[in-house]
Design brief:
Blueprint (H helix, E strand, L loop, with lengths): L1 E7 L5 H12 L10 E9 L3 E10 L2 E9 L2 H27 L8 H7 L14 E2 L1 H11 L3 E6 L4 E7 L5 E6 L2
Parallel strand pairs: 1-2, 5-6
Antiparallel strand pairs: 2-3, 3-4, 6-7, 7-8
Helix pairs in contact: 1-2
Length: 173
């Protein structure tokens, strides 16, 4: 596994990089040598540190984000959170296929997995601004809302973020 360790608003020292690499050694059993993992360490305010981990594993994105006053605690929690995601995802695939799975043959597994779609909805996309879509999102009390962005005529999605702000995704045709 290849680690890309970066920092933003925080002076990253060598011993911190070594600690991150040490913590990721226990995850190396899940991945091939070609797997790339990006770790971003950032400082927020005077004492809060944030550790973000992102991995692209055969078209699947695994992500972990933890904030804490102690950087070492944040690193431990973020790696543990990522490991739980890996184990949960791997178990889910194993149960569906009654087979042991490694991430290097995930494409074979995807062709065998059947998803059970239990509900299908159809609705008309309405042109509106992103602010209007956020208002609709709040009225419906949903996590996301799909619409046509009247500013550029693209299909777009607004969604509620964990920090109670909003995100906008625009779809290219």
């Amino acid at each position: 596994m290849k680690l890309n360790i970066n920092s933003k608003n925080y002076g990253l020292k060598g011993y911190v990089k070594e600690e991150i690499e040490k913590r990721f050694d226990k995850l190396s059993k899940y991945f091939t040598d070609n797997t790339v993992c990006t770790v971003m360490v950032s400082g927020e305010g005077s004492s809060t540190k944030k550790v973000e981990i992102t991995m692209n594993v055969k078209n699947n994105v695994l992500r972990s984000e933890v904030k804490d006053n102690d950087l070492h605690v944040a690193i431990d929690k973020a790696v543990d959170k990522l490991e739980k995601q890996l184990v949960k995802h791997k178990e889910k695939l194993r149960k569906r296929n009654n087979d042991t799975i490694r991430y290097d043959n995930i494409e074979d597994v995807k062709s065998q997995v059947v998803f059970n779609i239990v509900k299908n909805k159809t609705f008309k996309l309405i042109p509106m601004t992103a602010d209007e879509a956020c208002f609709q999102l709040e009225l419906l009390e949903h996590n996301f809302y799909v619409f046509i962005n009247s500013d550029n005529n693209k299909v777009a999605i607004v969604y509620k973020r964990s920090d109670d702000d909003y995100g906008l995704i625009e779809v290219e045709k």
